[in-house]
Design brief:
This protein has 126 residues and is mostly helical. Helix content is 57%, strand content 5%. It has five helices and three strands. The protein has a three-stranded antiparallel β-sheet with strand order 1-2-3, with helices on one face. Helix 3 runs antiparallel to helix 4.
Length: 126
């Protein structure tokens, strides 16, 4: 997954589940406090909501307008109420939240997904 995919998925998890502490691995797993989940939008409605919101955020960051995103959702076959909720959420995202999302994209861009090396020396020991 790209850094943008990962950051948008993390933000969508925050919105849909209210979780502030999630991390999306390079292969798309979402690490939360008590679980590691892989989203399957084809078999789980909540996963579909999360992945749709993440994708719409990504497309908006790439320059697609909110109205066009709503219309694209409707053309894809989702119900109007769902398309309206996604649209309304995106419109309500503050300038600060978009800036934080862009910062998270940069953060994921620096993340290799590699485990941190174990320290050979424990602080405070001699």
């Amino acid at each position: 997954m790209t850094p943008t995919d990962r950051a948008c998925l993390q933000y969508a998890v925050h919105v849909a589940l209210g979780l502030d502490h999630a991390y999306v691995t390079p292969d798309g797993a979402c690490v939360m406090v008590d679980s590691i989940d892989r989203f399957d939008p084809s078999s789980n409605p909540l996963d579909a909501v999360i992945t749709t919101l993440a994708q719409m955020m990504k497309l908006h960051l790439e320059g697609v307008g909110f109205g066009e995103l709503r219309n694209d959702l409707l053309r894809s076959g989702v119900r109007e109420q769902f398309a309206n909720r996604v649209h309304d959420h995106l419109v309500d995202v503050s300038v600060e939240e978009w800036a934080a999302l862009r910062a998270r994209i940069r953060w994921y861009g620096d993340d290799t997904g590699e485990p941190l090396p174990a320290s050979t020396e424990v602080q405070g020991e001699s």
